[in-house]
Every structure is written in structure tokens, then in C-alpha cells.
Amino acid sequence: MQFHTERLLLREYTLDDFDAVHAFASDRRIAEFVEWGPNTAADTRRFLEACSFAQSQPQRTKFTLALTVPNGDPIGSVSLSLVGGKGELGYVVAADCWGRGYATEASQAMLVFGVQDLSLAEITATCRPENVASARVLEKIGMSRIGLRKADKLIRGQWRDSLVFSASAESMPWSSGTP
Ligand SMILES: CC(C)(COP(=O)(O)OP(=O)(O)OC[C@H]1O[C@@H](n2cnc3c(N)ncnc32)[C@H](O)[C@@H]1OP(=O)(O)O)[C@@H](O)C(=O)NCCC(=O)NCCS
Fold first, then answer.
1. Separation CA 64–CA 14 (nearest Å)
2. Contact status, residue 115 vs residue 123, Cβ threshold 8 Å
3. Distance 98 CA to ligand 1 centre (A)
4. Which of 68, 71, 15 is nearest to 45 (CA)?
5. In CATH, what is the architecture of 2-171?
6. pLDDT for 152
7. pLDDT tens across 41-50, in order?
8. What is the mean pLDDT of the chain?
9. Ligand 1 pocket, 103 CB below 6 A?
10. How far apart are CA 169 and CA 44, in angstroms?
11. Is the CB of 127 under 6 A from ligand 1?
12. Rounded CA gap, 121 and 105, in Å?
């Protein structure tokens, strides 16, 4: 499975991506607002093994793709997890590549995939209220803020709030509205 966007190739991970993934996933800048990371080598290996396992499942429920510039190594990930009939979107971009619109471009493609190819009626995403860049990505791809969950994420020993964003098939301007 792979997608081309304007500047990116979104493709499946392989175990050979270890060095590139570990370079961005072991950087503490990416871990401030998320439960995982900064990765140890074992964490990165487990991540790539989990991606491989998900790829092999006949009824796949997790789609984690590498963000690459064509012919380049991964510079981030975008994921869609199917939970209770809905999709949950997630993403990370190498800190040295922030602010170039890569998370927006990749997330937009995953949203289209979820609605058009997987026929999901709703896709949600959460981020910490302080994660301004992430909230902005979700706004830019047309998701709406629908709530705030108090103290729902345990991040390095601290319970943190989550903003909840949602997109329905009908709300997407590019969708036919029939999930
Ligand atoms: C969140 C993350 C994926 C964004 O990646 P990115 O490729 O830099 O995102 P984009 O460039 O597509 O868009 C970022 C937007 O946030 C804005 N932004 C970033 N920091 C900001 C700040 N401190 N204040 C206001 N706006 C900010 C950017 O200007 C841009 O908006 P614009 O296009 O309107 O100018 C990246 O910061 C990241 O990987 N963070 C660590 C992991 C993480 O938090 N993942 C999300 C979990 S919820």
C-alpha cells in the first residue's frame, strides 16, 4: 500500500527503516506531547515489528505509513487505527522537518483513504491543548474540535488533557457524503 501526495511518498515500513526511524523517534523534541518516546533502540524495533505484523493481517486494523520524500528515508509516520468502527488518526514528523506542511499533507491523504477507501463514517484525532502545531494540522485538514477530555492521557507520570477532533464523511468537501 502506498500513496503519492504533492511532495511525499507514503509507503509501508520495512525492518530496514530502523536507522531512519530511530533518528527521529529517539529525539526528545518529538515526545513532549505524546505517550511514547523518546525511543530506545528496543522501542524502535518493536514499532517496526508491530508495523510488519499489522501489514500481514488479512483484516487489517492499523495502517502506519512512512512519510518519505521520493527516494529518501522516512522523515515521519502517519497512522490510521480502526477502533469501534471509527478511524483514529496520528502522526509524527522529524523535528528538523517541522513547519514544512508535511504532517498536513500526509494526514490529509490518510483522511481521504479512511473515508473513500475504508468507507469510515467518522475519523477522530486527539492532541494535547498545548500541542499547537498538532491542533493546527487537524484544523487545516478540515477536522472540527468537538470536545476536551480532562486528564485522559498519562504522559511520563502526568495526567494530561486532550482536545478531541472529528471529521465525518459528510463534512469533507471532497467526499460524496455517502460513507
Ligand atoms: C505535530 C507535528 C506532527 C506537526 O508537523 P509539521 O509537519 O510541522 O506540521 P505542518 O507543517 O503540516 O503544520 C504545522 C502548523 O502548525 C503551526 N505551528 C507550529 N508551531 C506553532 C506554534 N507554536 N504556534 C502556532 N502555530 C504553530 C505551523 O505554523 C503550521 O501552520 P500553518 O501552515 O498555518 O503556518 C510535529 O510537530 C510533531 O511531529 N510533533 C511531535 C509528535 C506529535 O506531537 N504528534 C501529534 C500527536 S497529537
1. 11
2. yes
3. 7
4. 15
5. 3-Layer(aba) Sandwich (3.40)
6. 96
7. 999 999 999 9
8. 95
9. yes
10. 34
11. yes
12. 21
3-class secondary structure per residue, the chain: CEEECCCCEEEECCHHHHHHHHHHHCCHHHHCCCCCCCCCHHHHHHHHHHHHHHHHCCCCCEEEEEEECCCCCEEEEEEEEEECCEEEEEEEECHHHCCCCHHHHHHHHHHHHHHHHCCCCEEEEEECCCCHHHHHHHHHCCCEEEEEEEEEEEECCEEEEEEEEEEEHHHCCCCCCCC
Which of 93, 96, 152, 163 is the pocket-test mutation for ligand 1 (most atoms within 8 Å of CB)? 93
Q: Is 63 in contact with 54 (CB distance < 8 Å)?
A: yes
Query: What are the boundaries of each domain within the chain?
Result: 2-171
